[in-house]
Amino acid sequence: MSIFRKITALSVFIFLSSMLISCDQQPAEEYTPEYSTSVLIEGDKVIILGIHPLHNPKRLHEIFGPIADYLSKNIEGVKIKVEASRNYAAFDKKLYSRQFHFALPNPFQTVNSLKHGYKVFAKMSDDENFRGIFLVRKDSNIKEVSDLKGQAVSFPAPTALAATMMPQYYLQQHGLNVMQDIDIKYVGSQESSIMNVMVGNTKAGSTWLPPWRALSKERPELAKELKIIWQTSSLPNNSLVVRDDVDKNIVKQVKKLLLNLHKHSQGKKWLDKMELSKFEDATNDTYKPVLAFLKRFNKEVRPTN
């Protein structure tokens, strides 16, 4: 290979690598799902299911698209479409302006959505998995929380409860002044938070268990190079909410179908992709522990609004 070709190949590699780990680049540049910009009025046959940024938009559609199709086929006269959002801020804006009929928000977004006419009707199970984790490289010299003082730490987004708020509270409880002692890097997604640690941009990165398990299965080299060093306590898992003007009969059918996914083989496969055993019944009261946590977080770490 000529020197010119070597240089060209190296330049392409560096460019692609930088695109992968950039804090501000969005995975949606490679995959552009549909994004609605207007509120759908009651009576429309198309029902929008908004999913908060558990993963990048492409992966969200791969996971939840088949479930939406399944719901559509089993509810007469209804077409349910998944809508992903480019980041947490975009999802929050659409949720709080009532652009979704149904939504799967994180618990922080859940309690906020109640102020905008949404109601909890179900949730993800496996609350023990709704906890934050910190990842470091296995060759890292980070051993104690105090070792992070003055270091860069990656977080997905300010409003990510399990992957950002709970880990930041953990650091605060273990002796750091989060807003002063570390260099906070909000990098936009769970995958980006992990990859920033992998390539050495940050000394540690936070996420939560399901994205870490899913990504490390897809890319085994991550599990070889990274390790979980600390994890937080848990809170109630992500909810399913519905807008208060959606037909109650549709809500009843959606709830029944989702709560029974784990009872058939195809449903189990869909749930496995989410690292989830089942959906379960829930109400607004299920998220009272989240309100208590947020009260402590706002007082001891930083304001959330």
| Straight-line N-to-C gap | 56 Å
The computed structural class is: alpha/beta
How many domains make up the 3D coordinates?
2
Q: Specify the overall morphology.
A: globular
Q: What is the count of β-strands?
A: 11
Instruction: Supply the CATH architecture of the largest domain.
Output: 3-Layer(aba) Sandwich
Unreliable residue stretches: 1-42
Overall mean pLDDT: 88
Strand order of the largest sheet: 2-1-3-10-4-11
Number of helices: 12
Radius of gyration from CA coordinates = 20 Å
Query: How do the helices and strands follow one another from N- to C-terminus?
Result: HEHEHEHEEEHHEHEHHEEHHEH
CATH C-level of the largest domain: Alpha Beta
Sheet with most strands: 6 strands, mixed
Give the percentage of residues in beta strands. Answer: 15-25%
Report the CATH superfamily of the largest domain: Periplasmic binding protein-like II
Q: CATH topology of the largest domain, anyone? A: D-Maltodextrin-Binding Protein, domain 2
Percent of residues in helices comes to 40-55%
Oligomeric form of this entry? single chain
Write up what this structure looks like.
This protein is of the alpha/beta class. The protein is built from 12 helices and 11 strands. The protein has 2 domains: 29-128 and 236-300, D-Maltodextrin-Binding Protein, domain 2; 131-231, D-Maltodextrin-Binding Protein, domain 2 (3-Layer(aba) Sandwich).
